[in-house]
Design brief:
By secondary structure, the protein is mainly α. Among the domains are: 161 residues, no CATH class; 39 residues. Helix content is 54%, strand content 8%. The chain contains eleven helices and three strands, in the order αβββαααααααααα. A three-stranded antiparallel beta sheet has the order 1-2-3, with helices on both faces. A hairpin with a 5-residue loop joins strand 2 and strand 3. Helix 1 packs parallel to helix 8, helix 1 crosses helix 9 and helix 7 packs across helix 8.
Length: 301
């Protein structure tokens, strides 16, 4: 077909590195802008910091707390925008390849130049990434004079039955209406889960990805979540590429469609329709189960 050969591996890595750097710049600009926007809703404290509320959540590349990669996000409770991220990795492919030569002079020479570039930036269990990422975000918030305290909503792990039974009375007390009515604000983690989905749409879980790939996916997801598709144009500009009119119009259309779709789904009529569909499906399943009788029960066969 007289086609040019594809780029070699080194050229591909150079291109990915350039895109990674440009996306990181745009991501940081987006988070800084989101931080400035959030500060407008709070009064500055006597020490010059802001005591803001955030929703912190962690997401992993694999389920079951066995993932080598994780991302922790700090999101404003007021604006719903991403304020900071921490991307963590327990794995470095080069370190794995050199592990067999550990203790040799050759390994020491290699490690001297590699230790500061290793992709393994976290040591511990996958489940511990959530807390470690939250601490890192909090420490940076102090350095940025953004917050001195946070209100955190984090996912809960399943508990053994004995433990659950012991803490049940406390749980009941914490969910009393009198206590909940005194809360200044309430929220869900829907926005966190929506952002997490954007990350893994860009670094799909079915294929292996290195730390730079997960970082790139996170940077692009932050820009898209905070400011829309137009951030892709900013990435191109940081690469020295002037976006064409068709690319600009396409991003504008994506953002318009996204807003319109969100408004439609949040309307009372659409919510009512979704409830009706769920109730109809539930009623159908219950009717079928009543007709069929027990077909499957845990430990029944």
């Amino acid at each position: 077909m007289n086609m040019l050969p594809p780029m070699n591996e080194n050229a591909y890595r150079d291109h990915v590195s350039a895109i990674h750097a440009a996306a990181e710049v745009v991501c940081k600009e987006s988070m800084n802008s989101a931080s400035d926007e959030t500060k407008q809703f709070y009064e500055v404290e006597e020490d010059g910091n802001y005591d803001i509320g955030i929703s912190a959540d962690g997401t992993w590349r694999r389920r079951g707390y066995s993932s080598s990669y994780g991302v922790v996000t700090g999101m404003s409770l007021v604006t719903g925008k991403v304020l900071d991220i921490e991307v963590m990795s327990k794995e470095c492919r080069q370190c794995i390849l050199w592990r067999g030569k550990e203790g040799t002079i050759e390994f020491e020479e290699w490690w001297e130049g590699h230790q500061h570039n290793s992709h393994a930036n976290f040591e511990g269990s996958s489940g511990a990434m959530d807390a470690a990422g939250g601490v890192a975000i909090f420490q940076r918030s102090i350095e940025k004079d953004l917050a001195k305290g946070t209100t955190t909503y984090s996912r809960k792990n399943s508990l053994p039955q004995a433990v659950a039974s012991s803490i049940h009375p406390v749980f009941e007390a914490l969910t009393a209406e009198e206590l909940l009515s005194s809360c200044l604000h309430g929220g869900t983690q829907n926005q966190n889960e929506a952002f997490n989905a954007l990350i893994w749409q860009r670094a799909i879980k079915e294929t292996h990805s290195s730390l730079p790939t997960v970082e790139l996916a996170t940077y692009l997801a932050v820009g898209h979540f905070n400011d829309g598709s137009r951030t892709l144009l900013s990435v191109l500009e940081n690469l020295g590429i002037v976006p064409g009119s068709h690319a600009t119009k396409a991003c504008q259309k994506f953002d318009r469609d996204r807003v319109c779709d969100s408004r439609r789904k949040s309307s009372d009529a659409c919510k009512k329709r979704r409830r009706q569909i769920r109730q109809k499906k539930k009623g159908y399943n219950e009717t079928q189960q009543a007709k069929e009788g027990p077909k499957y029960e845990a430990g029944g066969f």
